[in-house]
Amino acid sequence: EDKVVQSPLSLVVHEGDTVTLNCSYEVTNFRSLLWYKQEKKAPTFLFMLTSSGIEKKSGRLSSILDKKELFSILNITATQTGDSAVYLCAIVSGSARQLTFGSGTQLTVLP
Amino acid sequence: KAGVTQTPRYLIKTRGQQVTLSCSPISGHRSVSWYQQTPGQGLQFLFEYFSETQRNKGNFPGRFSGRQFSNSRSEMNVSTLELGDSALYLCASSDQGARGGYTFGSGTRLTVV
Questions:
Q1: In sequence order, what E strands does chain A have?
Q2: Does the beta-carbon distance from B98 to A92 stay under 8 Å?
Q3: CB B98 to CB A103 under 8 A?
């Protein structure tokens, strides 16, 4: 059974701090890893990672995948209060047409 | 390009009733999947449809069912509602099935009383 573990479960920082969120996984046949940000309702897509060692960047957010060690990290630099959300990591595996999610990291950015 | 549309946004139902939720995917997307989100269990996969066929089903009882129409719109149905079915039900659409990214709708908040 595929498994995704995120850490930490929650994190409180101040504006301007840099944070690193972790996602480790166990999967039979890896296809891709996705990061989402969920504020109130709909998770919004951040990144899709399929290859090891290639950093994806979008503004202050970046993410990288290590397929050998089976983990990914999501970095947020110069955090803002608007970054407060739950960050979800999910994997797609094998022929399964479904996302297996981790429990998420609740990030709170204080002014 | 319109996003994924889910209706209704909120529902309150009584135990034992049934409910139908609707999802309209992004135009051109043929894959629609459904997820249940609760504080205790997080996001859990219900089922996935592609071109009107259910391709994959999660570990939920038979009270949970779904279908997809020729225009890719999808519905999910929950019969004989239980208190534990109270959750946020999210629909996601994709244009590449398992390979591509998934775009989520805003969800339907179901409360069973």
A1: 3-7, 10-14, 19-26, 30-38, 44-49, 56-58, 61-66, 71-76, 85-93, 100-101, 105-110
A2: yes
A3: no
pLDDT at residue B96, as a whole number: 66
| Cβ of residue B31 closer than 8 Å to a chain A Cβ | yes
Longest dimension (CA), chain A: 44
Q: Does A51 touch chain B (CB under 8 A)?
A: no
Question: If you count residue pairs, one on A and one on B, with CB atoms under 8 Å apart, how many are there?
Answer: 59
pLDDT for residue A95: 67
Cβ of residue A104 closer than 8 Å to a chain B Cβ? yes
CB atoms within 10 A of CB B17: 12
Residue positions counted in chain A: 111
Which of the two residues, A109 and B30, has the higher pLDDT score?
A109
Low-confidence stretches of chain B (pLDDT < 50) are 98
DSSP codes of every residue in B68-99: E-TTS-EEEEE-S--GGG-EEEEEEEESSTTS
